[in-house]
What we know:
Mean pLDDT: 83
Radius of gyration: 61 Å
Structural class: alpha+beta
Helix content: 25-40%
Strand content: 15-25%
Number of strands: 27
Low-confidence stretches: 4-13, 81-87
Number of helices: 19
Largest sheet: 5 strands, antiparallel
Strand order of the largest sheet: 2-1-5-4-3
Distance between the termini: 170 Å
Amino acid sequence: MDVPALSDQMQPFELFAGLDPPSSIEDALRAIAERLRETFQCDIVILRASEEDRKHVARAYSAADPALGAAYGPALLALRPETRDLGLTSLRSGSAVVWTDLMRQPAVVSRLAEVEDKGIPVADARERLSDASVVAMPLRTVSNPHLGAVGLMNVSATSTLGSMERDALQALAPQISLAVQNALLRDRNRNTRVVLEAMIATTRNGVLVIDTDGIITVANKAYADILKVSTDDLVGQPAERVLREIIVPRFVDPSAYEHIAMRLDQRPNVTLRDQLETIDGTVLERFSAPVRDPDGNLLGRVVILSDITVRHRALIEARELAEQNAALLEREEERGREEIAIARAAHLLASALTRQDIHEQLVTQVQALVDADKVVLYNIRRRGDIIPAASFGVASSALRGLRRKRHEGIPGRVLQSRRAFICRDVLRERSLDLRGAELEGTQSLVAVPIELADRVYGVIAIYGNRIDQFDERDLRVLGDLAHHAESAIQNALLFEHERQIAETLQDALLAEEPPEVDGLEMATLYRAAAGALVGGDVHDVWILAPGRVAVMVGDVAGKGVQAAGTTGMVRYLLEGISVHEHDPARMLDQLSIMVTGRLGDAAFVTGFLAVIDVDNNELTWASAGHPPPILMRPDGAFTTLDDPDPPLGFPMNRAYRSHLEDFSPGSLLVLTTDGIIEARSGDEMFGEDRQVETVVRLASGSALSIAQGLYQAAREFARGALHDDAALAVVRRTV
Length: 735
């Protein structure tokens, strides 16, 4: 076989010059195999190539006789002429090997057996290949050391391949390897482009590609549809002209698009993302970025348009909804704060005991909750006069000028209608009768009535120096405060009425100042329990006869007006009995008979009664279940008079008992009710021992200072006001 001489000066790819561009890697390998078969004039050329990852393998062959190729080509391709199968692993790049008898190669025989086991008919091929000779060579490049392999084969023993073909194949090794490598690269690029074109064609995003010459090379259908233009007007056209004449007019703000384009011309390396709106109302997100090769060289620019109209509208709606929710939440929070403030104001109003306190507290709370320049609370007198009872922002000297008659001014209007009144611009209400401090700077006002059960008690009015200073919220707040003030004022009226009754009753029930008796210094003290106007304790000192004085303290179960009524009954009955009876025990006996059945809910009464005989220096006493008094002797020794009989109102099977004590000059008698000894600090009581210690400490003082000091000691122990009534009587023998 004559092989053409291969010149050392042959240029790269000269052997494969003129090959038509293949449509696939298999076509490219088949063309290379065809050219090699023609060059070496052999029967068959087998070619194998793989990518760097060795996962994608391509094979092709060329046969001089089509019938020969059809008969033996599939079997030959099934041999997988990989380097390890043909024993080429140890050969360096470009080295070739000759097998003059192919079927003597164990790897080939073994591989044919595997192929035959898989159903491929190779019996005829095995017979024909028995005389075949082969020149095989690995194909390698720097980037792909496992590029593939090429095999030249003659099946006739009369034409054997040998060293000459081997040397020629080795000389062509670089060209063959590069040709195969380029075929792989072309196939890879073609596949990549097909995939990219498919992706660009199927994506919903508009894609535009501009090369470095400013020509549009790619414009997919989505891009044309989004902008409602034709792809024929885009591809192959200068980008600058297309932008100016076709694209820019499609946008609501053409200047923004042109501005971005100018920036890209001046700075081609910039990546930009912005948002635009077309004249059709479509909202687009535009992304523009440079395209570079692996070495960083600029290849052009890609522009991607995404239709975000739905998302944009949803975002706007979500933002509007969020703003509405935030406003609603803010209003709810404001209303919550307002309700808390009104509740606090209601508590402060309810805590005030007098009407004047309520008036001042109401004005204070209105001023805190409403943005008013002046606040005036008008009180409606029963005879019809309207006078300012409390105010804010009005000089005291100007208050007299705010007095009105029942039918005059804003208070008179509200009084007659019993309805709230709001005026946002006083200049438009010519019927308003504003005077004095009302008129000064007032532009708007609100007034609401304060109603009791049968009448309008007053009017609360707020004045502003601006037009529309007040709204429905201010009217509502003012109405709520007026409503709470109504309850507080009603309670204050009841309290004042009860206080008047209680003070009158207390004045009638409590004994006057102790009488002046020679040889005696006497003092009494009474304090009702904390929060009570009157109580159930009683004390009394009265003269029985010359030189004889009765001293009594008592305690009716219960508190308030009912208990005070019972104490009054006990006191006056006892004084009546003493007209004809001076013995304490017999006096209590008769008193017990008289009050039995008349105590009602009081149930029982405790009491201590003493009769002091100055002339005989004697103290006679009897106790009806009462805490023991303290008797201090002239020498400073003390004792407690503790031998009580049952309280009044309890059934008794014997009479009350009298006891006799010496009451010489220098003696001291201290009588108290249980409000003193039962004063509490936590779980601990003041007690009888502290009471005795306090009396001993105060004994050198006057009778009044002893009474006041003992009460103050109990009060300090309880850290404040006592929770039970307290009555005290102190008698000192002076001569």
